[in-house]
Specification:
Helix 5 (about 145-155) packs parallel to helix 6 (about 175-190). It is globular and about 45 Å long. The model has no long low-confidence stretch (mean pLDDT about 90). By secondary structure, it is of the alpha/beta class. It is built from 7 helices and 10 strands.
């Protein structure tokens, strides 16, 4: 249903500089969806994500993300779009010289939060959601890889996003920890936040079957399968 759509792309061509990466992309992602995004390195997965979070412009086709028309979006509106998107990267990108709490506070202040009590309460709230409330005062180097990734997911949840885009979120983690992170992302999607996970890890896809979007030969296959 259109009114449920958080992401909708219709006949979109995606370019990197002047190189056509993906052509005639049709894609919809709805509230509560949990979607795997797969494809070889260089197949266009990252470019597709960049279009969704406003890092690549489009000139051909229609694209809507979190209520914004991406073709016409103004530079001043991109920060507001990104507040509705949570982004999780493989390499954590935590500020290593700040505690878990300070990492979260930094993002909230940067996105317009001013009330100190609300900031503290929200930090505790998102850490509770990812099972790390007790790690509030820890420094990133005192956490395991899996715990650091949970902090990154907590950070992505701060502004109550409509969708989380996770780019290889288990890439640096062992198999057991990877499963824990995917279970957490699945729980988040069941709470109403759509989740897209770009991954090369077919083991984890088999362990958690869900809808698959595949980038292949310059196309996006909306309901793909893995062999």
């Amino acid at each position: 249903m259109i009114e449920n759509s958080i992401i909708r792309l219709q006949n979109v061509d995606i370019f990197q500089q002047s190189h056509l990466v993906l052509s005639k992309v049709n894609l919809h992602i709805d509230k509560s969806d949990f979607v795997w995004l797969i494809g070889q390195t260089g197949s266009g997965k990252s470019s597709l994500l960049k279009v969704i979070y406003g890092d690549l412009n489009i000139t051909i086709g229609k694209a809507q993300a979190c209520g914004y028309q991406l073709k016409d979006i103004k530079a001043k509106d991109i920060p507001f779009l990104r507040r509705k998107l949570g982004i999780v990267f493989q390499d954590f990108q935590l500020l290593t010289d700040r505690s878990v709490e300070e990492n979260l506070t930094f993002v909230m202040q940067a996105t317009g939060w001013t009330d100190k009590k609300k900031i503290t309460d929200r930090a505790l709230d998102v850490l509770e959601k990812v099972g790390l409330r007790s790690k509030l005062k820890k420094m990133p180097h005192e956490l395991s890889g899996g715990e650091q990734q949970r902090v990154v997911i907590a950070r992505a949840l701060l502004n109550d996003p409509e969708i989380i885009l996770a780019d290889e979120p288990t890439g640096n983690l062992d198999p057991d920890t990877s499963e824990e992170i995917v279970m957490l992302l699945k729980q988040i999607s069941q709470g109403g936040t759509a989740v897209v996970v770009a991954t090369h890890d077919y083991h984890i896809i088999r362990a958690f079957p869900s809808r698959i979007i595949k980038c292949e030969n310059g196309k996006v296959l909306e309901d793909a399968t893995i062999a």
